[in-house]
Design brief:
This protein is α/β, with parallel strands linked by helices. The chain contains eleven helices and 13 strands.
Length: 292
Amino acid sequence: MAQRLPPLNALKAFEAAARHLSVKAAAEELFVTPGAVSQMLKTLETHLGVRLFERVNRGIHLTPAGRDYLPSIRNAFRQIADATRRVAASTDSGVLTISVTPFFASAWLVPRMKSFQDAHPEIDLQIVTSNALVDFSRSGVDVAIRHGLGRYGGLRSDRVVAVEMVVVAAPSLVERLGLPAGAEDLVRWPHVHDAERKGWSLWFQSNGIEELRAPRGPSFDDSSLLLKAVLGGQGAGLLPAAMVAGEVEGGQLVKLLEETHMEDFAYYLVCPEVTQNDPKIATFREWILGRS
């Protein structure tokens, strides 16, 4: 006889609680009470006959059984989301939802959108601006445009365009450390990083310097937060020149060296591999790569 599956809501509660390591945060995400989440977790543990969480000092931690169980449950939810996306693709309204950073949207995408709409009036673009990374299985986003190295597991990445990058720092930091005479002087500076923590290493390599130490300093997946950290004097930042032009002109930031291009560190069009051949996505990919 086939084994009875656990309740779906209990599995959702387990995945959310395991991801947040917090019953309260899981409850907020699922729009239920913390007590309801705790009860669903207890139901699941009873069904499985094994403890999934340790309750310690008002917090929770996964047991070895919980850590072993989580990847399969997470993958199952992703497969359900991907299958749902594929089935819905044939009957959707023709809207393509694109997640893009506010800077790229205003500086590059929006000024060029009319040519896409003229060529493809059957597709309506819905632009969602965000600096955060996209969870395609949960967000309803079809494609995203992100700045980095374009290396994302399970996702297709196509390089759209590389932009001029500039090294900047707050005047207070420059006053303390002095203006660098060249790229080699910046090795000893504190650095603020993007989420992939690769930008500075690539920048040093492009300037003929093999950085010997691992990247140190805070990192951010939100470029606006990265900029705030640089403005606050936490370290030198490597940012698109057009993004910080106003701050440099206004004196809030100091340009330490001239702009440079790093071909691998670019804006990429990203989508799940399972949906890369969706007609709307393929049409948009062909258009945007033809514009870059």
